[in-house]
Structure formats: C-alpha cells, structure tokens
Write a structure and sequence with these properties.
6 strands, Rossmann fold, globular, 44% helix
Length: 240
C-alpha cells in the first residue's frame, strides 16, 4: 500500500484553503511511511517536519530515503534533492471565490494570522478590495513562487510562471471534485482507494455571496479564474 521504495517520489504543494489538510491526514500519511515523509513547516507526528532549510540540511542518505515532501512550499524544490528526475508534483486548486471566502474566515479564526486584525475589522468585500491576505490572485501567486520572493515584471509574467509550474504537475486535483481527485491520485501511485473524512471547512454553511462581494473577488482575481478554468477543463477532459 505504501509508496514504493523505488520509483516516483511525490512533492505535494499545498495551496491554502484547497483541501490539503484532509488530503495530508486522511490519504497521504496513510500511503507513505512516516520515516519517508517530510512535512514543511507543519508539525504532524509521526511524520518528520521542519523548515525547507532543515530539509535541505539533512544528510544525503536521509534525503534519499524520502518518498513524500509536502506542505506550503515553492515549486522547484526537487532540483535541490537527490535524484531530482524522480520527483513528481501534485497540487489541488479551488474555485477562486470559494477559496477566498474560506481564507477570509480562516483569517478571522486565527489570531496569529498577520491579517487577523484586518479580517475582524473589515467585511469580506473590503478585505478583498484592500488586497489583504492572498485575496488577489492567491493561487497564481503561490504557484508562481511570488509569495516566496520571486519577482515578475508584470502580472502576465507571473501568470505564465504559474501555468508553467502547473504543467509540471503529474496531477492537478480540484477541491470541488475532491473524491474523484483522490481516486485519480490513488490510481496514479497504485494505492488502495481510501475513505476520507469531512473536509476541514471554515466557511459558515449556506453562507451566500452578495453581489458586492462577488464583484470584488472577480475584479481582483482574473488570473486565478483563468488558471482555474484551464485546469477544470483539463480535469474534465481526463475523465472522458
């Protein structure tokens, strides 16, 4: 059931508010041995964890034993690990409006979040208009490595970088089709299909978006909408 000792290794790039916690805890940790797993900046025993710097500082022999690296991290990490050609990327995307609403309520629920005070001060529409958190093209910013310090001459260049990294992924799952995405992931690595629990939702149940909120989200997330639609169509074609 576990990821084979030889063959592809997996890097799961977790984009915020896309279902990654459920995927980690209910699927990935059950399919890859804890001693072969490294979780970036998230402590979830028995998997080992630490910063990227700590990962790269591991003795080479320990790095060679890894079969899964996961967490919030920039693309390109495989280039600094042993056998870079053996690593494959997986990530999940989410409808931009749903992701931003979820992020907003996460910010409000997390006093340690840098944007918490603003989340408590502003409603959702104003939170987005001010570009707080990752409410402006957050998925593209994460996928392009812009949030990790990469600089671009234009939003178009950032989008192209995000698209380039998406094309490097062996699988791009969709939160709105989570069960099917997990099924495809298990098939890709010859894992037994697993049952998983309820996704970790923070958005209040049945909470509708006002016209003002939806307008603000659409105005400032054109690139995320383009990215998501591209991947949604690709996801549907793969099912045909």
């Amino acid at each position: 059931m576990y990821l084979r000792a030889r063959g592809p290794r997996l890097i799961f790039v977790h984009l915020g508010r896309t279902g990654g916690t459920t995927l980690r805890q209910d699927v990935l940790y059950r399919c890859v041995r804890p001693e072969a797993t490294f979780c970036v900046d998230i402590a979830e025993p028995p998997a080992r964890h630490g910063s990227i710097a700590e990962l790269l500082a591991l003795p080479r022999k320990e790095q060679e034993q890894l079969r899964l690296v996961l967490g919030h991290m920039p693309f390109g990490l495989h280039e600094r690990l042993p056998a870079p050609e053996s690593w494959q990327y997986v990530t999940f995307l989410r409808d931009p409006a749903a992701r931003i609403v979820s992020e907003y309520f996460q910010v409000r629920a997390s006093p340690k979040n840098p944007a918490h005070a603003f989340g408590m001060q502003y409603g959702l529409a104003e939170f987005v208009r001010r570009g707080l958190g990752l409410s402006w093209n957050g998925m593209c910013r994460m996928l392009s490595n812009e949030v990790y310090g990469e600089q671009f001459k234009s939003p178009a260049a950032m989008y192209d970088a995000a698209m380039g990294n998406i094309e490097r992924c062996a699988l791009v799952g969709l939160t709105e089709h989570f069960a099917e995405s997990v099924r495809r992931l298990c098939a890709l690595y010859s894992w037994k299909e697993l049952r998983f629990g309820r996704q970790y939702a923070l958005t209040p149940a049945g909470r509708p978006l006002s016209d003002e909120e939806l307008s603000a989200i659409r105005e400032h997330n054109e690139l995320d909408y383009r990215l998501y639609e591209h991947c949604r169509q690709r996801f549907q074609r793969a099912a045909a």
